[in-house]
Amino acid sequence: MASTSVTPNATPELQASQKKRSTWERILEYRWSYAFITPFMLIFTVFTVIPVLWAFFLSLTYYNMIQPPVWVGIENYSRLFMDDQLFYLAVKNTFYFSIVTGPLGYVLSLIIAWLINEVKYRKLYTLIYYIPSITSGVAMSVIWLYLYNGSKYGLLNYLLLEWGIIEEPVLWLKNVKTTLPAIMVTSIWMSMGTSFLVFIAALQGVPHELYEAALIDGATRWQEFWHITLPMIRPALLFGAVMTVVSSFQVFDITVTMAGFPSTLYCAHTIVGHLYDYAFLRFEMGYASAIAIVLFLVTFITSSVLRRLLSSRDEL
Amino acid sequence: MVTVRLENIEKVFEQKAPSGEVSKVYALKNINLTIHDGETIAVVGPSGCGKSTLLRVIAGLERPTDGNVYFDDKVVNDVEPKDRGIGIVFQNYALYPHFKSKGNLSFFFKLRRVKEDVINERVRITAETLGVGFEELLNRKPGQLSGGQQQRVALGRCIIKEPTIFLLDEPLSNLDAKLRERTRIELKRLLRRFKVTTFYVTHDQVEAVTLGDRIAVMRSGQILQVDPYREIYKHPINMFVANFIGLPPMRFLDVELKGQKLVGNGFEVEISSDVVKAIGDESRKLAAGIRPEHVEIKTTPEPGFFEATVDVIEPLPNEGANYVYFSFAEKAESIAKTDLNWEGRVGDKIYVKLDPEKIYVFDKETEETIVAQDKIFSVVNA
Amino acid sequence: MSAKKRRKAPTRGKAVERVTTGQIIIYAILTIGAVIMSLPIVYMISTAFKPATELLLYPPRFLVRMPTTKNFSDLALAMGSTDTPFIRYMFNSAFVSTVVVIGTIVISTLAAYPLAKHNFPGRNLIFQVIVSALMISSHVTMIPRYLVIRNTGWIDTYYALIIPALAGSYGLFLMKQFIEPIPNEMLESAKMDGASEWKIFTNIILPLVKPAWATLSIFTFISTWNDFFTPLIMTKSDAMKTLPLAMRTISDGLTIARMGAAAAGSFLTTIPVILVFIFFQRYVVETMTYSGMKG
């Protein structure tokens, strides 16, 4: 719609000034576009763009909110990696958590989605499996607390005692060895979320004639899954993997609710927990920002690796 | 090779309306059909008539709610599709997009862990059969192929298994006109060569006529008539078939029996006493029809010819003829065939005679044929 | 194929239902799994209505025999040291979630329109920036956001909980995906008829985009309602807490005796979301979840 009003034979200066006018003209022409995006851009800039940049900056400072920020260079990072035992514990816990719940939750979502796709009553089954994921982690953790209660009143303890599997009630959420695994179970229970829905949608998107052709060619259910279904839903598989990894690195609310803060010997201390600790309990904003940046980098690298891995598989 | 027999096949679907009401839809009703060994049956009908459903029942992709499917006198209702020895080409080919063409062809064998060299040999033979240029397609994925090329691959996938039955579901309908012509001939050549029992679904008459030894006309889940083309053209069993088969579609004229004549709006036809007897009752509501080649046109009045106005002239150079659409009066229209030199123009007055020996008479209420050219159908008088 | 038109259930995605032992096994697995998945929620509902006598039973009972609503009325007291009635937390959650949903819909739809349909200077740049923001997890921005909010004096107000959440990349992308397929010719002919951008927006774009609002509403509502971290750092006083925060407080030092009240709290935190979801999900176009993953 913009008219190109540059006369071809004019002198360079004339052309330049004509072009510049064009850009301003264009901006004026699209003034409505700018008007429409202003509310969004305003909030976005103030609350996302600036904070992102600020976060990088902050991580290189010492800032306790009482005094103005003091530049410390990479000292925060060196302290984080050299001196902070708790951080390593947090990283270890978070990784342990992710490595177990990530793939397990992912595979489970995929299998259940596939099973549901094979039968009727899809909407109902999908609903039942999906709903746990939209419950508040905190609210449900409270219930799991009941299940995991360390006295003989806790349902799990009661059942295990009855069946003779254990002799004394176990303090599931206090015992250093059992805390994280217990929380992992809860997490997996809640993990059939967006990825799950994406799997279901992708599975339904496979043209059913492909299945019919495979049926006529004589494929078994497994062969059909491996040769037809999986390749056809590749984008969903990638999406699910990235989502799962990213969200599992950020676990915090259920660990805090179930294991307390701090948890016994920090056995359920996570990276985000560490961040929260330094930012809002000790008010060391600079250091906490460094933690946030590290978390971001870890997540980013992992998802990039995943993307690389899942996008370049060979085909027949 | 196999003889396929369908006995009293019925297929019902249940449909749930948004209100929760469940209604039954009869996709196939009372289907009885025998496809002889080596024969090609072309099934035609309007959309929704059930022809694809019938194909799927033969394939085993749908189980009939009633009735039996026989392959060579053996009931195969419970036999899995993969064990029926069928080769199928779907309307949109259903090629596996993530396999190359070669992979598509060999998937069947890979599933059965056939040795690599055996597979390659089979692929080679199939490529030869399908003609020039097929090898080049082998290394490309369906996404990189044109519609026509995909169709060839789909065909290849069908024949490489050396099936005993071919099931083709509108295989040419996604191709453009020129390609369709070419491929149709190719297909005919293939079917001739393999002499495999074939069930061919299409909505295109020309395809049906070219490829089918017999044509089955379907409507609303039922087979109305199964006969070679000539026979259906000449002796359709009801108005629907008469109109569906034969181009351009037959126009019907309302007529009444008066004595020895059929009287319509602005015209008359003298008919034989056999015909009069077949019709029986003068109060019967009748419709008449005629094929364009049996309509005589003169430009000057003559006895036995009735006045009509030219509505549309459709020249068809391929056939060396014109189709002249004319009307005796309001709502009494028909079509005549003339040669290309005919000089009439739209709006002209012409004089038309309908050949009484070639006329069709239908019962307007039941839509059944009473008389079709030289054949008198035995009709129960109303 | 003609058969496709008439068949409704169950065959999208799978045309042939194999009735074999394999199928039965699948149903068995799915059903048992479904029961297991529902257990915690059933347990929650049951415990929420358990009278004190049943809470302390040994052996512990799963289902409630004599339901009571006393736990709900006890909730206020169970909070202990504060004067804040539980209703207040519910109000906070409901209010904040609703406003965020409405605000997000408005702002995202407005912004998505030019991004989808107008070729204005800077469009690509802005787009790139928004896409990159998608990759940055929320925790990176939390601390600076906190500082920004502090500077505006919005700490411990509704503003802190609402305003930052309005400019979400997900919402923007969703709406953009929905607006893009609208034929440009439609907009051009409206322009030729003399319609202003605003008229085009309200009369053409908005009606066509409504289905996406269901999806956006659900997901925005759920994520806002369940959000724990944001209220955690943005609120100080008890009166401003949202339900997840309140539940966290309850979980601290939880005893069996107070489980009834706690479960009642969980009930009130969880059930509204489930109901909203079930209600809205019939309006959700399935393709939405599918297209979301292209990002």
Describe the SSE topology:
The complex is a heterotrimer of chains A (about 325), B (about 375) and C (about 300).
Chain A: H1 12-29, H2 31-58, E1 61-62, E2 70-71, H3 75-83, H4 85-118, H5 122-134, H6 137-147, H7 155-162, H8 176-189, H9 194-204, H10 208-217, H11 221-232, H12 234-249, H13 253-259, H14 271-281, H15 285-311
Antiparallel strand pairs in A: 1-2
Helix pairs in contact in A: 4-5, 4-8, 4-9, 4-12, 4-14, 6-13, 8-13, 9-12, 12-15, 14-15
Chain B: E1 4-16, E2 22-35, E3 40-44, H1 51-59, E4 66-71, E5 74-75, E6 86-89, H2 101-111, H3 116-130, H4 134-137, H5 147-159, E7 165-169, H6 177-194, E8 197-201, H7 205-211, E9 214-219, E10 222-227, H8 229-234, H9 239-244, E11 253-258, E12 261-264, E13 267-270, H10 273-279, E14 286-289, E15 295-298, E16 306-316, E17 321-329, E18 332-339, E19 349-354, E20 360-363, E21 369-372, E22 375-376
Parallel strand pairs in B: 3-8, 3-9, 6-7, 7-8
Antiparallel strand pairs in B: 1-2, 1-4, 4-5, 9-10, 11-12, 11-14, 12-13, 14-20, 15-19, 16-17, 16-19, 17-18, 20-21, 21-22
Helix pairs in contact in B: 2-3, 2-5
Chain C: H1 2-6, H2 21-48, H3 52-55, H4 70-78, H5 86-117, H6 123-135, H7 138-152, H8 158-162, H9 169-179, H10 184-192, H11 197-226, H12 229-234, H13 243-251, H14 259-280, H15 286-292
Helix pairs in contact in C: 2-14, 4-14, 5-9, 5-11, 9-11, 11-14, 13-14
Which structural traits does this protein have?
heterotrimer, A: about 325 residues, mainly alpha, MetI-like fold, 2 domains, two-stranded antiparallel ribbon, 15 helices, B: about 375 residues, alpha+beta, Rossmann fold, OB fold (Dihydrolipoamide Acetyltransferase, E2P), 6-stranded mixed sheet
In short:
The complex is a heterotrimer of chains A (316), B (382) and C (295). Chain A is mostly helical. Helix content of chain A is 72%, strand content 1%.
